[in-house]
Amino acid sequence: MSKLSDRAAVVTGSGRGIGRSIALKLAADGASVVVNDLDAGPAEETVAQIKAAGGQAVACPGSVSEKGFAERVVGVCTESFGALDIIVNNAGYTWDNVVQKMTDEQWDAILDVHLKAPFRLLRAAQPYLKAHPVAHHRKVVNISSIAGLGGNAGQVNYSAAKAGVVGLTKTMAKEWGRYRVNVNAVAFGLIETRLTSGDGEIEVEGKEIKVGVNPDLLAAMARMIPLGRGGTPEEAAGAVYLMCLPESDYVSGQVLVCGGGYE
After folding, report:
1. CA dihedral 163, 222, 194, 155 (to 10 degrees)
2. How far apart are alpha carbons 121 and 74 in whole angstroms?
3. How far apart are the C-alpha atoms of 45 and 245, rounded to whole Å?
4. How far is CA 134 from CA 10, 84, 138, 139, 228, in A?
5. Least enclosed by CB within 10 Å: which of 59, 66, 81, 173?
6. Is the pLDDT of residue 215 over 80?
7. CA angle, corner 96, sides to 260 and 171, nearest 5?
8. Exposed, middle or buried, 28 (CB in 10 Å: 0-12/13-18/19+)?
9. What's the pTM?
10. Average pLDDT, the chain
């Protein structure tokens, strides 16, 4: 039997990149997945891919930063699958600048998507988790970054948000242990996605955000990684998957660094 059979998961930001790989990985091991993306198209593509492989999934598009989103996605999961067992707070993007040039809008947008949105989702999930106890351990995996552990020049907003995710994780592990919920974080290093390897701009809620890292800088970053390269979205998903398995039932309040040996 698949290890995640009869488990229902919410994965935010799972229409593309790392989030899509996480959703596919969980579904491949039996979980039913609520797929979220800012845009409906990518979310439906992930759902179709899961269903084509014999899994179960539904789409819940929308911005995780919107007021009321958290309650909506919890409702979609519990109404569609009759359960809520796994929450992966993955959605996010970067909007970089050095501190003297960073606007309040940049600061607020990144704190909202990376820190306030996970807080809201966990807050919205609590009434259901308390009212519907289960014999197995439920899992929360919050996505942090090595930027949140050691800082990164030009990313004061992102680094602060990801450091906050660590505090959120450790506190929720203490609050939710009584509900048999494991709360952990995975801190990613260099993972090759459109946000790092892309070129140009993406549109996020009406804002044009520059993406991509200079190829020479990427190569230099890769040389600093003991494994000698950036990670793939599938490898990033594997780290999250570990924290969702029954084998991690006695692991809580921890930060797993997925960075190829670089911290």
Report:
1. 30
2. 8
3. 26
4. 17, 10, 8, 12, 43
5. 66
6. no
7. 65
8. middle
9. 0.95
10. 95
Amino acid 193 reads T
> Using one digit for the tens of pLDDT, what is the confidence trace for 103-155?
999 999 999 999 999 999 999 999 999 999 999 999 999 999 999 999 999 99
Percent of the chain with pLDDT over 70: 97
Active site residues: 158
Nearest alpha-carbon partner for 125 in 111, 140, 142, 147: 140
Question: How many Å is the maximal CA-CA distance in the chain?
Answer: 55
b or e along 123-140 (b: 16 or more beta carbons within 10 Å of the residue's beta carbon)? ebbeeebeeeeeeebbbb
197: CB partners within 8 A, 6+ apart: 212, 213, 218
User: Which three-class secondary structure string do you get for the chain?
Assistant: CCCCCCCEEEECCCCCHHHHHHHHHHHHCCCEEEECCCCHHHHHHHHHHHHHCCCCEEECCCCCCCCCHHHHHHHHHHHHHCCCCEEEECCCCCCCECHHHCCHHHHHHHHHHHHHHHHHHHHHHHHHHHHCCCCCCEEEEEEEEHHHHHCCCCEHHHHHHHHHHHHHHHHHHHHHHHHCEEEEEEEECCECCHHHHCCEEEEECCEEEEECCCHHHHHHHHHHCCCCCCECHHHHHHHHHHCCCHHHCCCCCCEEEECCCCC
